[in-house]
């Protein structure tokens, strides 16, 4: 069989891998959006792509040639191009867990809505040259129709149960933590009388994360495709999420009558935040400071978490049994309309505002940051990774003046950061995941889903741990397994 790396190769986003069997049965693992700009080729060739066979469509292959898609989890850098796959002619099924099915539906519908807005804005222009670029751009933007077609072809399966794909091929989804429904995918293939196995890690979670189960160990496999987002670093904060958040709220909203703005991704991160706040107010008798969650998508995602209580960790299940809620508590309010969102700026008491996106790039959070960034009694708390160039990245790097929607703002608010709510395992978590495999029997480890520097560092760490068979594929590179 052959394995091709079509995305998240020497970069973080765009996860997509093609497994081709001897009988031409083709399995696509993930089909994510690539949200990173092309990089210049380094002298080491780190970002030099290895070309595949030419194809004129959206993908570097004929979409109709794919037999089945396996989806590790819902985040758009793993699922975001699924509607385009169907638009290009794919007619097969998508296999994933039940929560991944539900959360992917929410995320893709939101993306389609944003695409429609972009198309409407493009259609306003009358310039001919711009029109030509618009036509090309619209070809790459899926809409609600494509999302409906995509979700009609999803087949949800349970964790830890073998599912037969075709003769001699089965797949098992193993809990990965990271996000509700996220999975490590193990594929077993019988070819020419020989049994081969390969695991795709997806995104590896961390232990003791709010709401989620710990990543489960993977059985021995021949080949391992492993993410490496945090391959060169450890998490900085060692406090529990409750202790870290309690400390920040005490300093920013209780000791002084301030306002705490938390940019947060709507799916996964916001649910962890709200659950942690609920525990603080329920179990530690925190003053009932007003909490606003300003994200319609977070509201929809929270309902999905409640529908899958049985898949949450033991602590969350017991909390729900005792309190009959995970996310609803005194003085908490979801803001549904944009009018209600903007009205919060007139709220005069200390409060906490949680809004997307986590990188402070797009979404309603830009308005809240703009309204509070010049207020020395406000604090902006960054709780996750911010890509270079985003507003969140600029805040973390100490930029004194920020332009938001064409208006300059002086940065007088306090800027803080914690990583206790990061859903990615760090270097030690990744080592623990790989450590379940025997160096003597594992034929190859392929590192994906990380910056090249992180991959190189993790490769060196693995070599020190007795795993010399590590490869860092280039985008488009194909391997015979």
Question: SSE layout and pairings?
Answer:
Layout: E1 2-7, E2 16-20, E3 26-29, E4 68-70, H1 76-79, H2 82-87, E5 93-97, H3 98-122, H4 128-139, H5 144-151, E6 154-157, E7 163-166, E8 169-175, E9 183-191, E10 194-200, E11 223-227, H6 241-254, E12 259-263, H7 269-283, E13 290-294, H8 296-307, H9 314-323, E14 332-334, H10 338-343, E15 351-355, H11 365-372, E16 378-382, H12 391-396, E17 401-404, E18 407-410, E19 414-417, H13 427-434, E20 444-448, H14 452-464, E21 470-471, E22 478-480
Parallel strand pairs: 3-4, 4-5, 5-6, 10-11, 11-20, 12-15, 12-16, 13-14, 13-15, 16-19, 20-21
Antiparallel strand pairs: 1-2, 1-22, 2-3, 7-8, 8-9, 9-10, 17-18
Helix pairs in contact: 3-5, 3-8, 6-7
List keywords for this structure.
2 domains, MBL, hydrolase activity, 22% strand, single chain, 22 strands, Metallo-beta-lactamase, Chain A, Rossmann fold, 481 residues
């Amino acid at each position: 069989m052959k394995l091709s790396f079509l995305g998240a190769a020497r970069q973080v986003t765009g996860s997509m891998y093609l497994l081709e069997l001897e009988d031409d049965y083709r399995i696509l693992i993930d089909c994510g959006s690539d949200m990173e700009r092309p990089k210049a080729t380094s002298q080491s060739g780190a970002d030099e792509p290895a070309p595949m066979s030419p194809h004129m469509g959206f993908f570097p292959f004929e979409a109709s040639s794919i037999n089945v898609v396996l989806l590790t989890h819902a985040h758009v850098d793993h699922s975001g191009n699924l509607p385009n796959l169907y638009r290009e002619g794919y007619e097969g099924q998508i296999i994933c867990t039940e929560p991944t099915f539900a959360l992917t539906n929410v995320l893709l519908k939101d993306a389609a809505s944003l695409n429609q807005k972009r198309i409407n804005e493009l259609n306003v222009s009358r310039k001919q040259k711009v029109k030509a670029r618009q036509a090309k751009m619209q070809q790459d933007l899926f809409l609600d129709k494509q999302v409906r077609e995509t979700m009609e072809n999803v087949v949800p399966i349970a964790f830890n149960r073998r599912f037969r794909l075709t003769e001699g091929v089965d797949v098992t989804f193993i809990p990965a933590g990271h996000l509700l429904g996220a999975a490590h995918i193990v594929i077993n293939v019988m070819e020419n009388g020989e049994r081969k196995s390969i695991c795709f890690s997806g995104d590896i979670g961390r232990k003791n994360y709010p709401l989620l189960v710990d990543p489960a160990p993977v059985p021995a496999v021949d080949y391992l495709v492993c993410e490496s987002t945090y391959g060169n670093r450890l998490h900085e904060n060692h406090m529990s999420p409750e202790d870290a958040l309690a400390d920040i709220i005490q300093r920013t909203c209780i000791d002084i009558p301030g306002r705490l703005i938390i940019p947060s991704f709507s799916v996964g991160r916001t649910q962890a935040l709200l659950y942690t706040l609920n525990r603080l107010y329920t179990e530690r008798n925190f003053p009932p400071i007003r909490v606003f969650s300003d994200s319609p998508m977070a509201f929809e995602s929270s309902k999905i978490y409640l529908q899958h209580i049985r898949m949450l960790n033991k602590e969350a299940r017991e909390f729900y049994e005792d309190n009959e809620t995970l996310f609803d508590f005194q003085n908490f309010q979801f803001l549904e309309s944009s009018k209600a969102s903007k009205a919060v700026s007139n709220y005069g008491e200390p409060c906490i505002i949680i809004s997307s996106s986590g990188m402070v790039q797009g979404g309603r959070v830009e308005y809240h940051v703009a309204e509070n960034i010049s207020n020395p009694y406000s604090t902006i708390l960054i709780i996750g990774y911010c890509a270079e160039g985003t507003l969140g990245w600029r805040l973390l790097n100490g930029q004194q003046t920020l332009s938001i929607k064409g208006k300059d703002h002086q940065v007088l608010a306090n800027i803080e950061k914690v990583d206790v709510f990061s859903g990615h395992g760090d270097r030690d978590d990744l080592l623990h995941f790989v450590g379940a495999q025997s160096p003597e029997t594992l034929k190859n480890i392929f590192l994906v889903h990380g910056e090249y520097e992180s991959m190189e560092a993790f490769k060196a760490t693995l070599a020190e741990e007795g795993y010399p068979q590590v490869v860092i594929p280039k985008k488009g590179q194909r391997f015979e397994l």
